[in-house]
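A further point concerns the way the authors explain their paired sequence and structure data. Each protein is reduced to its one-letter sequence and a matching series of backbone shape codes. An entry of this sort, consisting of the sequence and the corresponding backbone structure tokens, reads as follows:
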Amino acid sequence: MQKVVVIGAGLAGTEAAWQLARRGVEVTLYEMRPLATTPAHKTADMAELVCSNSLKSESENSAPWLLKQELRRGGSLLLDIAKETRVPAGHALTVDRVEFAREVSKRIEAEPKITVVREEIQRIPSEGTVIIASGPLTSNALAASISELGGSGRLFFYDSISPIVEADSINTDIAFAASRWGKSIDGTDDYLNCPLNQEEYERFVDELLAGESVPFHIEEDNPKTPFFEACLPVEELARRGRETLRFGPMKPTGLDDPRTGRWAYAIVQLRKENCRSDSYNLVGFQNHLRFGEQKRIFRLIPGLENAEFLRYGQIHRNTYVNGPELLNDMLQLKSDPRISFAGQISGVEGYVESIATGFAAAQFVLDPRPMPRESAIGSLCAYISGADPKHYQPANITFDLLPKLDEQTAKRLRKDKKARHAEVCRRALEKFDEYLSVSV
């Protein structure tokens, strides 16, 4: 087989390159950093996590768990490294983002069948098999080439990054350690929680709504460019109603303040960024306020009155193609099947979803069979290729994407949601195992 070109060494690109190499395929992996940078990346490491450091739930029989289980059964490199670099975060698979990216880079660069080229690809190669995994911050030149090739305009939505604060600057006389409902992997309290009473919450919301935002600097700006609903900036949530934050990132449920024995009026959760526990992420506090405004407003949160910010929140462009118009159910360009798309540029949202489409794109190069529709990965591919093209938005894995149970089973389990989810997962893994058993 001729060499495969993979464009982009993010989560999808590195997983795709690894899957191909481990099965004997020569891969040329292109990455433009550090020669060309993006507004969000800070290093030249592969698979750098620029938003949260969480790969979501490990709770058995949840949709995120199912997607990870399929990847593990497929021999995912990045899921293995996530396990090696894990930091405590309740039932979530959360990693030390620096160690994670370093280890991915080390393993990819050490693989003899992968040639890493640090160069910006501005046009799609006219020959050979190509996997485009250039990510949500694809360069303008390459994005223009994709647009020309696909015959469809680019789509954009805005995504945001949460702030990170220095651990030593958190006032632990106020912030208390606890996991929601006491759930954690090893029985430890994995989060710090900053409690607010009603007066503190109301003041915070007032200042948040009045805060000055950073103007957009995207050449394709227009007033209708949407935010991604699953990752709304915190100030956008506040604009939807004064109580919205209390039912979103500031919900206090399941967190007993040890000083009062009760739930606070609102809570801001802080999650460890790395194994050293020297920095914490403000969970769900992605935003696009000016840096000075972030410092002023977020220091109103009890426990963060002297917070030192290691990184401020940001907003950046996410680029993705209109999958239903352009791609088939094997993530290949309908007009030129030698070209595949993987990762966020294909129209998925989320770290594990990006890894999954990288895995799938490599699999389809070697074995041109769609994955079982009952599987989580197969359902993601079906969504990318089969959603309504007029209203296409990036998607995370949810049970809504998977096929419904047959009528008899659904009727039998209609009063037991956990049992229904368990059955969906059992069916998915059974079909996925069958698929892998005859795979190349």
